[in-house]
From TrEMBL:
This is Sn-glycerol-3-phosphate ABC transporter ATP-binding protein UgpC. The keyword Isomerase does not apply. Transmembrane segments: none annotated. Residues 4-234 form the ABC transporter domain. Pfam families: ABC_tran, TOBE_2. The lineage of its organism: Bacteria, Pseudomonadati, Pseudomonadota, Alphaproteobacteria, Rhodobacterales. SUPFAM superfamilies: MOP-like, P-loop containing nucleoside triphosphate hydrolases.
Amino acid sequence: MATVSLQGVRKDFGSHTVIADLDLEICDGEFVALVGPSGCGKSTLLRMIAGLEELTSGAILIGDEDVSEKLPKDRDIAMVFQSYALYPHMSVRDNMSFALKLRNQAPGQIDEAVNRAAEILGLTEYLERRPKDLSGGQRQRVAMGRAIVRSPKVFLFDEPLSNLDAKLRITMRAEVIKLHQALKTTSVYVTHDQVEAMTMADRIVVMRAGQIEQSGRPLDLYDYPNSVFVAQFIGTPTMNILEGEVRDGRLNLFDGALAMDAQGLPDGDLLVGIRPEHVKIVAGDQGLVEGTIELVEPMGNETMTSCKIGQIPLQTCGTDRVAARPGASVRLDFDRESLHVFDARTEMRVQPASRQIRVEAVS
């Protein structure tokens, strides 16, 4: 196992900068997920760690060794790709042992490593089969087994579950978590799926346009996003972002339909975030504002509802069943302690924390 240190890493393709002077420290044994929208640079960053992309500038250290100029085979890493990249003419055993044979390891050591990996991944009974005789999940396990047998310092995962169906992805998420808990090898995991990142990683690094937008533990990013970008990227369904205006210590929302005590916040335009699970449809005349239901989406254990307050959309999500139909008028309430406030110009979080804002009146 080893630390991974990225120091001023930059990657240019011609005049286009994909990674901009990025610094990142990954601890020994840590499982770090790189997330972000398509084109943010997360896969390019992973490929630079692997040695598949050259650095324009900066340095990459694995442990105490600068590997910036080393070939992939000399970095002591193992990579699991989105595609399984298995040799179709080889058995599972031969696929898993191939890299060790290239290293000229003793046959006894190879058999021991392959059998151990197969036992960890539940592949023992499939060792003599070929990839075409396996399911998608089993093939991905073989790809992980091929990485395990090398006993690398660092595992690199490039969206390894994106080719699987939804149910199998959930199963394989658990497999990867158990694998990391058993081996405790430093792991870097690239995914566009923030649910994967939330459930699997020790730490999430949110990337945007080749830079780190925010890094932290999954629930810290969920509870305290530093920007509107992170607030809307982390969490499903996405956070509601409302335009607000502070004047004389009062924050007005929904075009003035709701006034809030905003002492401590500067006058001017703000953005207020509220997660759908913190908005509720309430009975009778209770609640803060009146809205109109546009769409009801029953999900089984929870219901998502799209509403409008005037012309402003607001999404709710909760375990209560919603009997009202589209077009019905409803009263809406929300958790006063779960608001997030961002500067309207920079879209960065405003201090003091929005949890200090209190609802004062409804106009």
